[in-house]
Amino acid sequence: MTETDIRHTGSEAPAFPQDRTCPYQPPQAYTEWRGESPLTRVTLFDGRPAWLITGHAEGRALLADPRLSSDWGHPVFPVVVQRTEDRGGLAFPLIGVDDPLHARQRRMLIPSFGVKRMNAIRPSLQSLVDRLLDDMLAKGPVVDLVSAFALPVPSMAICELLGVPYGDHDFFEECSRDFVGAATSGEADAAFAKLYQYLHGLVAKKQAEPGDGLLDELIARQLEEGELDHNEVVMIALVLLVAGHETTVNAIALGALTLMQHPEQIEVLLNDPAAVPGVVEELLRFTSVSDYMVRMAKEDIEVGGTTVKAGDAVLVSITLMNRDAKAYDDPDVFDARRNARHHVGFGHGIHQCLGQNLARAELEIALGTLFTRIPGLRLAVPLDEVPLKAGHDAQGPIELPVTW
Description:
There is one protein chain. By secondary structure, the chain is an alpha+beta fold. It has helices at 56-63, 101-109, 115-120, 122-139, 145-150, 152-162, 169-181, 185-208, 214-223, 230-260, 263-271, 276-287, 318-321, 356-373; strands at residues 39-43, 49-53, 68-69, 143-144, 292-297, 301-303, 306-308, 313-317, 378-379, 401-403. A five-stranded mixed β-sheet has the order 1-2-8-5-3. The chain has a three-stranded antiparallel β-sheet with strand order 4-10-9. A two-stranded antiparallel ribbon has the order 6-7. Strand 1 (39-43) and strand 2 form a beta hairpin. The longest helix is centred in the middle third of the chain and has 31 residues, at 230-260. The termini are far apart. 41% of the residues are buried.
């Protein structure tokens, strides 16, 4: 099957992705897609039709189904964002490859992201959050919560975990932001090249002067023993560095915004510290920072009485799965005491987010401490004036002016 075979104008199906108008609510068009059928037809920017999976049960089953591929390097793998249209067959480790390569890469990293290790770094995370809030309170309102708090928490944390000098954070945060938010493939390629060259040099330096971060462990255990080559180590580092702070920045900012817009729910955090993990799970369900996951059918698959054919583009809607009334009572209600552990905010199946334990630790400490120390935190601008990221990016505010 060729790329031409699977394209058409797609004029009968709505465009995808779509932008949110409320930071924590699905785009308005999603309302029409929440029917009895667990899938609907949408059209990508290049005219290619795609299946959008909207049902919670069906989406979880598909994300665990080996008949769906995550291989970005496949010549007809769907392209959702125009800036990645000319990716030249480049497949990113972990997120853009299938088993057995994916399993091999993931096995190397699982010990570094386990619950025990994440619990061990909680004291340093708490210290970091306290310092950032000290600075915020000293400066006084109005403050952009993204740049002052939501960004440095995961950025510092992933640097410490990987062994990347935080002194370089302005550079790699800019490269990461330019890479994931580029308007064209040329802009994305330029940002990628700068970040790749930086990490290429860092890996070479660590080979000569080992440290104690995750990158140093990969070099000592895998590169030196021939399990990985230099390029693969650099690419793994790039994926972890970008993914390690891009999504969590949005989750912290969007979580804080959601709580500020539901002040009665903040009392759950303040009155019962043991409830904080549950509040975080509900925020992950309700906000769905990662709006969708992209796959391609390798074989014909029956979904809700419809045949998804081999070669079809499949988009699994994390947002609509997390708002499925068959899975949750009153799914559009933010309920801080809801048991939402079976949400798919971190995905599902073999590609479920490797760093979810780190993200949970960051969110629990960041949001729990933020509202404990500043219980009167509130937006400094009307909600509809908060600038939002585009529908094809991780969802969240670009800036979040707050006061107290």
